[in-house]
Write the structure tokens for this entry.
Amino acid sequence: MSALIIAIDGPSAAGKSTLAKRLAKDLGFTYLDTGAMYRALALKVLSEGTDISTEAALPELINRTEIDLVETGGQPKVLLDGKDVSDKIRTPEVSQMASKTSALKVVRHWMLGLQRALGQRGNVVAEGRDIGTVVFPAAEVKIYLNASVEERARRRVDELRKAGRQVSLDETLREMGERDKRDSERDLAPLRKADDAVAIDSTALDAEALARRVMQEIRKKPLVN
């Protein structure tokens, strides 16, 4: 297989991470979780109590922040200033802050450079909210993954409860609706389907069926043997 970038975009809990990890493993590609990068910065903002009401404080914070994505024992890890924060970034509080900080120009400009640098490492499966529209607009394969907001909220509740957090479906549904609105209506790199992306609804698909569906699209590309 020749060099290939697979871009997967979509809202929270649409199944992007599960799909991207599966494809990366099956294809022997690098998994690039751009959402986790925003979450890592959001975790630092929260832990330091940084005021993001203006962007004045963010350049200083960014200048002393290092974020990297690595694999350890076949498992993707998110490093913030050299420390593994893979579990700490998966909370509703971090999710909401990531949505807020990702709307800021200084943050998106910095992240764009990091993400493109990671993409230059080789074949990648990248997932996020602006991968096919902004980060890798020339990606050979673009998927826009969605699901009903009710199904996405249910998935997120299951994920959080398995991690030991007590959350309600109604509250999660409300927070997800707020984030969807904020992500799709922001002026800078809003969440949207790229014109040349294939739209797939994962509401009724399990992980196996979804991976098969996307592999059908990947195999249509002349670069794929």
Observations:
- Residues 52 and 58 are 7 Å apart (CA to CA).
- The longest strand covers residues 67-72.
- The beta strands are 5-9, 30-33, 67-72, 75-80, 83-84, 124-128, 141-146, 198-201.
